[in-house]
Design brief:
By secondary structure, the chain is an alpha/beta fold. The protein has one domain: Rossmann fold (3-Layer(aba) Sandwich), CATH 3.40.50.720. The chain has seven helices and seven strands; from the N terminus they run βαβαβαβαβαβααβ. It has a seven-stranded parallel sheet with strand order 3-2-1-4-5-6-7, with helices on both faces. α1 packs across α7 and α4 packs parallel to α5. Bound molecules: nicotinamide-adenine-dinucleotide. Nicotinamide-adenine-dinucleotide binds next to α1.
Length: about 240
């Protein structure tokens, strides 16, 4: 099968970075299964907007029993999986000393636990085909300290560590695992930031236009595709130069 036609599963595909990834992948001709967790209306909008090339499936990443069923459903309906993008995630800003067990558990469970459970199912499917590519969406917070983001940073640093270990485990099956590390991107996740906080984040960027959801999507598409054959266990920072 032509690489461009192959199926990619994207978590959290109805808005923000995930939606841009779904649109980029369908634009280059791929079939996309994306997950939604709260709005079936938005999921329908994405399906229509992509001319039926993207198909929505419900998923709450905290639900242990759902992951396997999701993969069974997706593959029964759309065929064998060639790529997975672990994009969905949550962020809450809380100083560690004032933070609750609930916040810590929730962020670690969705971001790191979700990536673990999705990757485990994907690997099982990809090993049969002796091919596949997984892209994990991490965050610059995993590399650079931000007050109030201990749980989030820990979850994203865990994702980077998992990316490297898994790349070693499954490279011999022709499966590649990489991460994208976004800096500040305007989405629902960052919409609660004050203008002052945004100005501070933007001040450290080298590029005046910052980073858009589309910038991230293009790098994800590259890492999913055979254009990046030979790259595995890596993290590509897309931060307009913040960490330069
Ligand atoms: P967003 O809030 O718009 O999107 C988050 C997505 O995750 C949504 O689609 C949401 O439905 C999904 N999601 C949340 N909880 C879920 C759950 N329990 N089960 C299933 N899905 C769930 O934010 P975004 O900025 O588009 O974030 C996308 C990814 O990019 C996240 O992993 C985020 O950590 C990462 N990121 C964002 C930025 C930024 O500045 N926006 C920076 C670095 C990394």
């Amino acid at each position: 099968m032509e690489q461009a036609n192959q199926l990619v599963l994207v978590t959290g595909g109805t808005r923000g970075i995930g939606r841009a990834i779904v649109e980029e992948l369908t634009n280059v001709g791929r079939t996309v299964a994306f997950t939604w967790s709260s709005s079936s209306d938005l999921a329908e909008e994405v399906e229509q907007h992509t001319g039926g090339k993207a198909h929505g499936f419900h998923l709450d990443l905290r639900d242990r029993s759902r992951t396997k069923h999701l993969f069974d459903e997706v593959q029964a309906r759309l065929g064998e999986l060639s790529g997975l993008v672990n994009n969905a995630g949550v962020q809450r800003s809380e100083l560690l000393a004032l933070s609750s067990d609930e916040t810590w558990d929730h962020i670690l469970d969705v971001n790191l636990g979700g990536t673990f459970r999705m990757s485990r199912e994907a690997i099982r499917a990809m090993i049969r085909r002796r091919a596949g590519s997984i892209v994990n969406v991490a965050s610059l917070s995993a590399l650079h300290a931000v007050a109030g983001q201990s749980a989030y940073a820990a979850s994203k640093a865990g994702i980077l560590a998992t990316t490297r270990c898994l790349a070693r485990e499954v490279g011999r099956f022709g499966i590649r695992i990489n991460a994208v590390v976004p800096g500040f991107v305007e989405t629902d996740m960052t919409s609660g930031l004050s203008e002052e906080a945004i100005a501070q984040l933007r001040a450290s960027e080298c590029l005046p236009d910052g980073v858009t959801t589309n910038n991230i999507a293009k790098v994800v598409e590259f890492l999913i595709s055979d254009a990046s054959a030979g790259i595995t266990g890596q993290a590509i920072v897309v931060d307009a130069g913040t960490s330069a």
